[in-house]
Amino acid sequence: MFRDGARKSAWQEEIKRFSSMALNSDHINFDVIVAGGGITGISTALHLQKLGKKCLLIEASNIGFGTTGGTTAHLNTFFDTTFDEAISKYGEDQAKLLAEVGKDAIAIIQNNIASHEIDCDFETKQGYVFALDDAQNKKLEKMVEGSEKVGVSMEFCKGISFPVPFVSVAMVPDQAQFHPVKYIKKLAEAFISSGGIVLEDCICISHSEDDSGITVKTSQGEFKAQNLVYATHTPPGVNILNMMTAPYRSYAIAFEIKDNKYSEDLMYDLEDPYHYYRTHIVNGQKLLIAGGEDHKTGHEQDTGVCFSNLENYVRKYFDVGAAAYSWSSQYYESVDGLPFIGKLPGSNGNIFTATGFMGNGMIFGTISSQIIGDLIINKENKYENLFDPRRVRPISGFSDFVKENATSAFDFIKDKLFMTKIDSLAEIKDGEAKVVKYEGESYAVYKESSDKIHVLKSTCPHTRCEVRWNSAEISWDCPCHGSRFSVNGRLLTAPSTQDLQRIKMEDQ
Ligand SMILES: Cc1cc2nc3c(=O)[nH]c(=O)nc-3n(C[C@H](O)[C@H](O)[C@H](O)COP(=O)(O)OP(=O)(O)OC[C@H]3O[C@@H](n4cnc5c(N)ncnc54)[C@H](O)[C@@H]3O)c2cc1C
Question: Is 105 helix (H, G, I), strand (E, B) or coil?
Answer without folding.
Answer: helix
